[in-house]
From TrEMBL:
GO terms for biological process: fatty acid metabolic process. InterPro entries: AMP-bd_C, AMP-bd_C_sf. Gene3D superfamilies: 3.30.300.30. Keywords: Fatty acid metabolism, Ligase, Lipid metabolism. This is Crotonobetaine/carnitine-CoA ligase. It comes from Klebsiella pneumoniae. SUPFAM superfamilies: Acetyl-CoA synthetase-like.
Amino acid sequence: MIPVISGTLDANGYLVISDRAKDIIKSGGEWISTVELENIAIAHPGVRSAAAIAARHPRWDERPVLLCVRAEGGEVEETDLLSWFEKRVPKWQIPDRVIFVDALPVSATGKVLKNQLRQAYGEILMSEGK
């Protein structure tokens, strides 16, 4: 299987890859990059690692959910990270939930296993009625 990628063409006609298609969240009619959300999250001093996934949503089809591992000694909370995002992205890109975990599942090569995260958390917004 060949992964489908997403990107844009720069001024010189080169493809700039931004994400794999399965890692882009389509919320309503808007596209949200999981890579961008993860980069913003790990820029916070209280976050060691992060993974953004699409969670099913009753109104918007999909919404971002962010799973984070706190930095050692970090005391960051969900409200702290949501405020961090408010200063960096449009409101519609802000994750609906931030969930703190002890570790993210990774493959033998260190890649985050987002399929496991989607299986575990992909329905969380449906059960919360958000």
